[in-house]
Amino acid sequence: MLTQEQAVEIKVLMRHGASIREIARELGCSRNTIRRYLREPAAEQYSPRAARPTKLDPYKDYLLERIEAARPHWIPGVVLLREIQEHGYDGGVTQLKEFLRLQRHTEPEPVVRFETAPGKQMQADFTHIRRGRDPLIAFVATLGYSRASWVRFTNNERADTL
After folding, report:
1. How far apart are CA 140 and CA 111, in angstroms?
2. CB within 8 A of 135, min separation 6: which ones?
3. How far apart are CA 10 and CA 37, in angstroms?
4. Phi-psi region of 17 (alpha: psi -120 to 50; beta: other; left: phi over 0)
5. Pair 152, 139: CB distance under 8 Å
């Protein structure tokens, strides 16, 4: 298998008019390899590996049923391990935990927007822009209804400045 860089080099040299023999000599591979990379675009890509069988494979359907039956709650891996060991599973907990990690779908909680009537709410806070001997602080106020912001820069956070 050639690297992706070599596969691209084959195509570039061919566009520049080099023969298959010249390309093979320059890249140090056979002419048949050059022909295959020019003829088959899929030759440049690795195919995915086939999954190796595990001791857990016969129990996956049972585990998926248990996971679905318990939704939205989650059954701990050690509990499921105990259950499939009763059915004859003699593998370890690591395979089971890896399988369960792939099955766990955590859906984000919906964002609830806090709405207010016009003129009823404003949020205000100070934020530090520059610290040190000569600080720069911004006072930011945002209206709840329109989300309009107002900013005033200052060098302190005292109440009389507010």
Report:
1. 24
2. 128, 155, 156
3. 8
4. left
5. yes
pLDDT by 10s per residue, the chain, length 162: 788 888 889 989 999 999 999 999 999 999 999 999 888 876 666 677 888 899 999 999 999 999 999 888 889 999 999 999 999 999 989 999 999 998 887 777 888 887 889 989 999 999 999 988 999 999 999 998 999 999 999 998 888 887
Instruction: Note whether residue 10 is domain-resident.
Output: yes
Q: Which residue has the tokens 């593998």?
A: 91
Cα 23 vs. chain centroid, distance in angstroms? 40
Q: Is 21 buried (19+), middle (13-18) or exposed (0-12) by CB count in 10 A?
A: exposed
* Residue 14 located in a structural domain: yes
Q: List the beta bridge partners of residue 150.
A: 141
Note whether residue 159 is domain-resident: no
Q: Are residues 92 and 63 in the same domain?
A: yes
